[in-house]
Amino acid sequence: MALQAALLPSTLSSVPKKCSIAVAAKDTAFLSVSQKKVQAASLSVRTRVATTAPVATPGSSTAAKDGKKTVRQGVVVITGASSGLGLAAAKALAETGKWHVVMACRDFLKAAKAAKGAGMADGSYTIMHLDLASLDSVRQFVDSFRRAGMPLDSLVCNAAIYRPTARTPTFTADGYEMSVGVNHLGHFLLARLLLDDMQKSDYPSRRLIILGSITGNTNTLAGNIPPKAGLGDLRGLAAGLRGQNGSAMIDGSESFDGAKAYKDSKICNMLTMQELHRRYHEETGITFASLYPGCIATTGLFREHIPLFRLLFPPFQKFVTKGFVSEAESGKRLAQVVSDPSLTKSGVYWSWNKDSASFENQLSQEASDPEKAKKLWEISEKLVGLA
Ligand code: NDP
Ligand code: PMR
Q1: Is the ipTM above a cut-off of 0.85?
Q2: Ligand 2: does its nearest atom lie under 6 Å from the Cβ of 265?
Q3: What is the pTM of this model?
Q4: What is the pLDDT of residues 14-46, one digit of tens each?
Q5: Which residues pair with 155 in a beta bridge?
């Protein structure tokens, strides 16, 4: 993945290079995003991903002729929007016409194909390169996004990898165990850097969302299926999560367990959301949220699992646990957390009941421990070079 970061620099992405105010005769509320088709020359593929995106003037809900206020189109960045939940949410949001979606993906061509395949309209999205397995790539993404000149109204930290059968760790470009490196540390840096951009946005409801999961919460049946999530005293993380010279597991265990590493990373995601809330909600007004979207048993998340698991998991979740949700339904749920006017409360972990109604769910004791969240924050800052 790190290699891919080098081969697919962000310049390969087709992004609106400049966001300039074009005053239309009848409506001053819209910006026209000037477009640039960038060719994926080295791959001899011409992919048209960014077209005119009507992003209205940052600064405002504008008074329309009938006296009603209209809110400009929002800009949402979704990581890992090339498949599964991220793609479904990107589609759901783009289809409303109220959102321009920036699909932050490690595989540009896959994302372009996925967006087309999902029927997303030209002009409703922009694809930009982001490989969360490289902190340099995260920084490059932030630079590219800023150069594109779009406002940032919502950020969804959605991408993840799950390596359930791995018995030995793999590492990010910066040398951190891959599951925690991608799912937590890459997103931690991204969220911290983009917080500045979100603070500049005038959008009425700005939201920063980080995906959590039931399997990281030991107060549920699903969270008690071994291996159980648990960060211990974070000694493995504090030592650098490097494996060769210590542990690749957050809790410092000697042996590596890929399934546990994923669940641990989800605890980190949920703790980070709450720490962001404590540190920044009052000061910035930004809503911080996490969610469990339901068991989307058909996504690429399970690509590394054994074939028998991939065959039986969807019917097991559909007919036995009844926790199954389709990708489309999960996309609507995530889209709700991004834009539903009733989900503005900050610091919340959202879930949905059997009638698909959202409710504030309880996190496990560990996933809501403020001391642990603070410690995780401080160690993570050091690992990503912010402290
Ligand atoms: P998918 O595998 O379908 O999607 C994951 C996305 O993350 C893909 O787009 C993938 O890119 C991307 N990704 C992986 N590694 C990187 C990287 N290094 N840099 C950038 N992007 C990367 O899984 P889901 O849609 O199921 O998962 C989405 C989120 O939902 C995750 O956070 C997961 O933890 C959460 N979740 C999922 C549940 C489920 O039942 N599926 C349940 C609860 C939570 P690519 O397409 O290139 O592989
Ligand atoms: Mg689980 C009670 C219901 C329930 C729910 C909602 C899930 C969700 N799971 C439940 C129960 C069970 N699971 C039971 C009883 C078993 C034992 C047979 C079981 C097993 C199981 C496995 C082996 N479940 C799994 C796995 C995985 O590899 C998945 C995982 O842990 O990924 C990290 C998984 C999941 N079960 C879920 C959900 C949502 C997942 C995967 C996605 C995630 O947490 O991100």
Answers
A1: yes
A2: no
A3: 0.89
A4: 333 333 222 222 222 222 222 333 333 222 222
A5: 77, 208
